[in-house]
Amino acid sequence: MGGTLYLLLGGVAVLLMIGCSNLSILLLARGMAREHEFAVRAALGANRGRILRQLLTESLLLGLAGAATGVLIAFGAVAATKSILPTFSFTAEFSVRINLPVLVFSLGVALAASLLFGLSPALKSSQPDPGKCLQSGVCRIAGNARYRRAYSLLISGQIALTLMLLAGAAAAIEGFARMLRMPLGYDPHNVISIWMPLQEDSHTNWIYRAAYLDRLRQKVADVPGVKVAAIATNATPPRSGWEASFEVLGQTEQSQQTALVNLVGPEYFRALRIPLMQGRIWSEAESNNGAHLAVINRLLARCYFPHGDALGRSIILSKFESRSPTTISAPGIAVSWLQVVGIVADS
To answer: What are the tens digits of pLDDT across the range 12-64?
Structure first.
């Protein structure tokens, strides 16, 4: 998600610059309208620094007002979002709230933007010429000439930033639409995964554990409306399994040769509609007997069996071990070669 979040942050930054440029134009227009006032102040003895401080204070007050409004809208949006979410949408440990460091950062950006984009209008308005500006007609002509270039630069910058933001938004939308159309290799629709907690001392023998899980699966499969039920140590891709090193019989082990390993029942691929590319899936009897069989995906077959001879080859999970109470594997799985009987699509 890192790249997407940086892109979003860049879009927000460009949007902030567009808004600040627009506000700078308004401050310039306001400063031009108040040149007579500043000329009178200068004639009465106010120096440039005093006028500059007054204008920056006004810009800072605008920024604070905008930041306070944004914070109130943020809190209101979070509360509204939480109110429309279905009950128990998240676990009890999950909390949707305004993050304090992000809030402080946003307030700091608001204050910095207020000073930065209010500085140019303040510098231009803090140098009135009392001799000219006390004559309204001369002041207006001089003011128009002085501010026209600043207007042109700010408006040009706004247009350039807006075009860049629109182009970035179009690219982001296109990428998001392409991501939605990307084939997953499995079908997540109408599928639900249920985690079953197991006590440390329950069904510690692999045969009893397998029979117990099979009874659970059968009970679920008998529920009206359920088409297929499957057992797995981890449910849905892409993080279905845990990383484990493996060796291929007859091949020299490569450095960092690892794969995601998942212990699944034979119905797993049918439940997620993961297509079988070659070979077969083990049978229920083989599963109950703890046969040392493996199904690999197409990517692993292409990387480690480039000649297309993966079926019938053997691999070993040399560092694989049971992870009680969640996982109790078939006896001898860590010291036995597993025969590859099937190749499924990547998911």
So the answer is: 888 888 888 888 788 777 777 777 777 777 777 777 778 778 888 888 888 88
Closest CA to 269 of 329, 191, 322, 197: 191
d(CA 346, CA 217) in angstroms, rounded, equals 25
pTM over 0.90: no
Split at pLDDT 50, 70, 90, the class of 142 is very low
**Structural tokens at position 33:** 């309208």
Least confident of 184-198, 218-232, 274-288: 184-198
Residue 296, helix vs strand vs coil: strand
Q: 106: closest CA among 149, 153, 73, 141?
A: 73
The first and second tokens of residue 46, run together, are 């106010």
Q: Taking Cα atoms as reference points, which of 244, 252, 342 lies closest to residue 291?
A: 342
Element (H, E) at 147: helix 136-180
The answer to whether residue 143 scores a pLDDT higher than 60 is no
The answer to whether 75 touches 98, Cβ cutoff 8 Å, is yes
Three-state DSSP at 1 gives: coil
Return phi, psi of residue 162, to 5°. Answer: -65, -45
- Contact of 340 with 315, CB cutoff 8 Å: yes
Please give the helix or strand (H or E) that residue 13 lies within, else none: helix 2-33
Contact 98, 74 (CB under 8 A): yes
Judge if the upstream peptide bond of residue 224 is cis by omega within 30 degrees of 0.
Answer: no
Which residues have a Cβ under 8 Å from the Cβ of 16 and sit 6 or more positions away? 109, 113
